[in-house]
Amino acid sequence: MIRVLLVDDQPLLRSGFRALLDLEDDIEVVAEAGDGMEGLALVREYLPDIALIDIQMPVVDGIEATRRIAADPALAGVHVVILTNYGFDEYVFNALRAGAAGFLVKDIVPEDFLHAVRVAARGDALLAPSITRKLINRYVTQPLDTGAGTGLEELTNREREAVALVARGLSNDQIAERMVISPLTAKTHINRAMAKLNARDRAQLVILAYESGLVAPRSS
């Protein structure tokens, strides 16, 4: 059962998301909150698998709420998915850097919304290749020297290769095919790289790969 916490200051939107989620046999909404401070308290109380958090809220906004969740070892199993009205922008980028697993635009169609919740619950980042390109082209403009002070020097060659492919938006199955290994081995390389780099999830791994210079932004 996927346990979900809803955090949004608009009751109508919360009730709409809840009604949709409650129809699914494998998803349970454990609680709702109307601002970030209340949301943080409920995250600590319920320890949900997914915290769907609005990016702009009173008291504590979604970025700060994400930062506090990511910084708390007791909440390591909570995957934050940011809710936004505007699509990918600087606020979303800052939330990803703070530790969010991905983001959803509020006008998403129901089928895609439910799929996204399940993807996030598996620990995969909600970053399609098109979003990854937008992210790096707009915000990752001054890469560091490759491996300098980032922990990349601790990675094996195969782990570095796997991280680079994650940064290109490939799934575990696609990475396995590209590297001629099993999906389980691909997942192992990625998990070991995340541990060595202290990356909370694949979203942070993508950002680190580009900011470190391991992968260079493409022109298109």
From TrEMBL:
Protein name: DNA-binding response regulator
Molecular function per GO: DNA binding
Pfam family name, one: Response_reg
Keyword list, A-Z: DNA-binding, Phosphoprotein, Transcription, Transcription regulation
Residue intervals of the HTH luxR-type domain: 148-213
Lineage of the organism: Bacteria, Bacillati, Actinomycetota, Actinomycetes, Streptosporangiales
Keyword Nucleotide-binding: no
PANTHER family in UniProt: TRANSCRIPTIONAL REGULATORY PROTEIN NARL-RELATED, TWO-COMPONENT RESPONSE REGULATOR
Modified residues (4-aspartylphosphate): 54
Organism: Acrocarpospora pleiomorpha
GO biological process: phosphorelay signal transduction system; regulation of DNA-templated transcription
Every Response regulatory domain range: 3-121
